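User: I want to check something. If I give you two sequences, will you return the structure for each one separately, not as a complex?

Assistant: Yes, each is folded on its own. Here is the first sequence with its structure:
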Amino acid sequence: MNRPERRNPWVWIPSLYFAEGLPYVVVMTVSVIMYKRLGISNADIALYTSWLYFPWVIKPLWGPIVDLVRTKRLWIILLQLVIGASLASVALTIPVPGFFRATLAVFWLMAFSSATHDIAADGFYMLGLKEHEQAAFVGVRSTFYRIAMVTGQGILVIVAGMIESNTNGNTVLAWSVTFGILAAMFIVFGVYHRFMLPFPAADRPVRSGQERNPVAEFFEVFAAFFRKPRITSILAFLLLYRFAESQLIKLVSPFLLDPRMKGGLGLTTSEVGIAYGTVGIIALTLGGLVGGFVIPRRGLKFWLWPMVIIMHLPDLMFVYLSQVQPSSFMVINAAVAIEQFGYGFGFTAYMLFMIMVSEGDHRTAHYAICTGIMALGMMLPGMFSGALQEWLGYPKFYLWVMLSTVPGFIVAALIKIDREFGRKI
């Protein structure tokens, strides 16, 4: 077999990052919509699907294993096949009694596989490209990750809704077919990447020198992170900046799907795929692009407070939607788009802050730690948000969400940022 060290990046980077983004959005968002359509309560949906964040929380703990065992290329291919098998298992277990527990167990396997695939894919990206190519393709990988979100949260949800409509509301069949389609896609990804990924010479197991203790090195990396100056305010920012959004985002789909008599907006599955999975994701992406465009002009310190405000105040859109319950689909789409644009714009500050915190000798490992803490900050509030919503009802719940934005402002005031950080000199 021909084993080229390099291939045209356009041949494998778009498909690799599309495959990286799809299982994440399926586990985090599509599962919520599916469970809602299959009759699971908001409290159970929020609690149990929030636990699915946990593999991304602890991802830094087993990252070294991917470095030490075989090649990242092999990890990518095998994990894509495992994800494909997991998706097929979800499709097969949806129709059975006790499907909730069975599918959750499979989603756990998929979440661990997806988190590990993230590690391998990001590592392979750095090994398979030269330094200038890595910079050139950052936008490409981000774009195809976002396309994966639109595909999973938008197109596939619309497909499930169309199947529901054409089978007299047979939601079990609709979601079984949808996950069958996803499973077939990942089998194709695994086979495609088996032949199209390059074989970088640097893609080999990493071994520490005999004079160094790998276990001691591993713990020293973590210790160095927690010895950073002002670590308390850093941790507070990472955990609480998105305290409101982590609750809001978990209940968006149930709110859009719930009938009006229960305080929701009564949208169909396909309409949710359009409003939240397509219009919302496009607005989220545009917000991120605008944030990335403006920060280099004045730096993160200048843009922090505008981003804090623009991220949190648009949560008022869901206060409006829950209080008024407008019937116009255009109005609903506009409100979702405004909130998601603000989230995308404000989240740019969070991402750049993680890069700033990670600077130093262990940049890659410390960034992974930041992403783990970020996932924890989304997981914990999301776990109780469903029960809180059922207790308060949607109108009062979204007022609580607005109150929950206060910690985001407080932690933004606590952090210290160099005036020139993020500014293009």
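And separately, the second sequence with its own structure:
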Amino acid sequence: MQIEDESVILPQGESLRAYLVQPFVSKGDLKSLLRLRGVFTSLQEKEQSIPALTLSLIKPSEFVELQQLYTTKEDNPKVTTQIIEWASPETLISSIPDEIDVNKVLDLDFENFKVLNAPSFYPVPNSDDAIRMDFEIERLDRSKSWADSRKRFKASIEIQKSKDKDELILISTHTAPETKQTNRALARHLIGHFKAQGQIAQKASVQQIRFGDFTNEKRFDYLLGFTRDNRQSPITFVEVVDIGLVPDEDHTLPEELEWMKERIRGLDLRGTGLEDSDFLSNPKYRPCLLIHRLDAKFRFSLCGMDGHCVISLGFPDFNNGQNPESEIELRIKKIDFDESRRGLDKNEAKQTILKEMEFVKIQAFKRLATLD
């Protein structure tokens, strides 16, 4: 009997390869899956690990794990921030264009997604001067004929005036890569409009928090600042549970770290209480190490929600050739509530927490800049 519901087909061979080459399945994910099988490869790139899976049968439980990777990584909200000087007394809601056709802003003639409906900006409730646009995109991927070819993803962009000085803060909450692309296009469009209206100076440039903005030592100080600077906030630090490190080839390793030389390209340390480990607590190591990610456990009590979460603070594009332009990104890898409530949307809860942490991120960066 022929199965008409393609979503229940267990892919093998070429169909499986088409799934595994997708960017949401990382080389680390494939490495972990192969290790569970007792398979170890000398090279860790996907070109070597994918054949090891496609040339054998994949179990239903393994495919379920791969599907969960899709949901976890693409549906999970991530937050980035841009800052630019503002030079107008007008409110934001009166300064934006009368109409914004997001699909025209994107110029999507050759893309495989579109923004649904006609989203627009609205004033953020209980805020002095802030606007927000919520939107949803639909992606059509014809290479997934055996699975769901249409996927929808939600995102938002919020713009607010800083209370401390004349500047705008643009907060991008995205999920899949297409929503990140949409937010970037919207930000460019609005900044261009504000400059044309004289509300932003023509020479003003967007400030982002990038990997290359720090020395090796300052990057440690900045990421560790998240574990110290929010003691009085509704989100409090518990412990560091994971860090990503790479030896800096331009610096000499101290004698006790010589074992990393020419043998370690990247190091992921997982555990509990890692803030007390030598890698994080010994300042002697910091000049010769590139820290690109810090995952920490936090306790939150916010908007009637109580529980614990693991927040990842890192530069996700750093792994693409140690890209110094990689922008810092916040995302929640795990969240647990003290009490489960019916109708509680985990992604909305994550966005609430991330927005609170976004201000910690900005203030920590500004504080560090004043010390230079």
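Because they were folded independently, the notes below concern the second chain alone. The mean pLDDT is 83. Residues 236 and 299 are 5 Å apart (CA to CA).
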